[in-house]
Amino acid sequence: MIESRLPDPRLVEVTLNGETVLAHADATILDVCRDANVDIPTMCFLKTLSPFNSCRLCVVEVTGSRTLVPSCSRTVDGGMEITTESERIANTRRTLYEMYASTVDLSLADEETQNWMAKYDVNIDRFGLYESHRDVKVQDDLYIRDYDRCVMCYRCVAACGPDAQNTFAIDVAGRGLSATISTEFDVVLPDSACVYCGNCIGVCPTGALMFKSEYDMRAAGTWNEDRQTVTTTICSFCGVGCNLDLHVQDNRVVKVTSPVDDDITDGHLCIKGRFGYAYLQSESE
After folding, report:
1. Residue 24 pLDDT > 50, yes or no?
2. Burial class (CB within 10 angstroms; exposed 0-12, middle 13-18, buried 19+) of 135
């Protein structure tokens, strides 16, 4: 029997941008790239959620493959040759961002998305800049959903479902351009299975889901992230020990998140941890 020359039989050799690297046989291309500090844009992918392959921004070239390959879900094979940057890849990513900009409002997309759009010199007017026509905002006292900003990345559905909360209050309804995120039978959110954990907000990359406090402050023109500080603390509501990031502006908590890399929460919280901060700034004695 010939022994493997690799230090671990579960490892395979792949070529990444011309260099040979070792990777676990069950790793995805994106895993290998991030382990090698090679940046790849993503929008629908989040490391705490299952890959969904909806945005296609993470595509790379694999030698022998006719089409570009989604790196977030394609597992590596021994001898695979991977290219993460080329003219073909850049043109594809640029076009995808430009198509997104023509169908949704990306003005409040997360910093990662904005940086990648700048890197690829995205022309948001190329296919016609999106103009609001849905004018649908489902509001309650805790958060809002703005369909004008929704790219159907499926993150919120995954966080509400098997990857985090297991509430299954929302899912994709409709097909094609008519597809949208909806509750079962399209009932209003208070009549659905929603437990108001807000984990859907925590994973949204485009501002389609937003704290009501942030939404109101943006509408009033008072939201200013440059004046905000973020302090990490421990939730005081139970003994689980969830880490909270308190976003503070003008000495008031304006929203609460949790670090994605926290071993306890993976970025997810319950309704008390995410929304129960009002007592911190109560003016009553």
Report:
1. yes
2. exposed
pLDDT, tens only, 56-114: 999 999 999 999 999 999 999 999 999 999 999 999 999 999 999 998 999 999 999 99
Helices 87-103 and 111-119: angle between axes, nearest 10 degrees: 130
CB 181 within 8 A of CB 172: yes
pTM of the predicted protein model: 0.87
Cα gap 25→9, rounded to integer Å: 9
Q: How far apart are the first and last CA of the chain?
A: 78
CA distance 51 to 48: 9
| Residues in CB range of 247: below 8 A, 6 or more apart | 228, 229, 230, 253, 254, 255, 256, 257
In this structure, which amino acid lies at residue 64?
A: G
Amino acid present at 50: S
Which residue bears the tokens 């909270």? Answer: 244
Letter string b/e over residues 254-263, b meaning 16 or more CB atoms within 10 A of that residue's CB: bbbbbbeebe
Domains identified in the chain and CATH numbers = 11-85 (3.10.20.740), 137-281 (3.30.70.20)
